[in-house]
Amino acid sequence: MTNQIREVDQYRFVDVGQGQPIVLLHGLMGTLSNFDGILDFFPDKGYRILIPDLPFYSMSIHKTSVASLSKYLFRFFKRLSINHAILLGNSLGGHVALMHARDYQEFLSGIVITGSSGLYENNIGGNAAPNRKNYQYIKSKAEEVFYDPSIATKEIVDSVYETVNDNMKLIRTIALAKSAIRHNMAKELTSIGLPTAIIWGKQDVVTPPDVAEEFHKLLPNSDLYWIDKCGHAPMMEHPTIFNDLLIGWLHEREL
Fold first, then answer.
1. pLDDT digits (tens, 9 = 90+) for 181-200
2. In this structure, how many other beta carbons lie within 10 angstroms of the beta carbon of residue 140?
3. Beta strands of 54-140 (E only): which ranges?
């Protein structure tokens, strides 16, 4: 994916394909490569895939929040003249997508959330802080994110370990986790009328299945899909199933 990354002004992102834009938002401690399965599939199906590198660790500490990320995304859309996009977010990225839809609904065509924060989540990142020097502990916490622990490759574990052992990154990680908790969207979701796909792992321990049920109840125009033997990042753990569910939903909704 490295050779596919573009830079325009302060924005760093992947941009592949032509057609209906789908913008992918990674979670806290996530990376652009989390969406490799989507990137390998959708550009050949008439979709333009964009993956912005969200500035989790470069924002001013005073502006490190979910709301600031939503505003950053608005500026990114404006700079690249992106209109009527579908926003797809995993974990904190899903929370950003929902907040963006709340504030800029008229510029979007639909939303997809998977393992999203915004209602409730177990704060695995913050819990790692007291034991951050213990590599095996960090490895075990990274493995908990997935139903199949082997998905937590050494590259993923090394990235998490580096993040929690970088003081400035850790401070921003904790700030974003706290911001996600403060910005509970339960009372705001009913105002988001966009078509919404909720794709969830049945064994997600970070945002458990009842969170998906609650999102489905509160989002008035939503469809809920389950993936079995799957944790917090379905698009990584079961990319083929995830892609089949997503493209089926896009066709059904004529998006």
1. 888 999 999 999 999 999 99
2. 15
3. 85-90, 108-114
Taking only the tens place, the pLDDT of each residue in 50-87 is 999 998 888 888 888 889 999 999 999 999 999 999 99
CA-based nearest residue to 70, from 94, 50, 47: 94
Max alpha carbon distance in the chain (Å)? 49
Rounded alpha-carbon distances, angstroms, from residue 4 to 8, 89, 104, 156, 230: 13, 20, 28, 20, 28
Whether the per-residue pLDDT at 178 is higher than 90: the answer is: no
Asked if residue 245 lies in contact with residue 225, where contact means CB atoms within 8 angstroms, the answer is yes
Q: What's the pTM value of the predicted model, to 2 decimals?
A: 0.92
Segment (H or E) for 74: helix 66-80
Here the tokens at position 170 are 């850790």
Query: In whole angstroms, what is the distance from residue 232 CA to residue 242 CA?
Result: 13
Determine the Cα–Cα distance for residues 47 and 126; give it in Å rounded to an integer. 36
What are the CA-CA distances from residue 194 to residues 68, 88, 110, 197 (Å)? 22, 13, 5, 10
DSSP code at position 77? H
Angle, vertex CA 204, rays to CA 201 and CA 207, nearest 5: 110
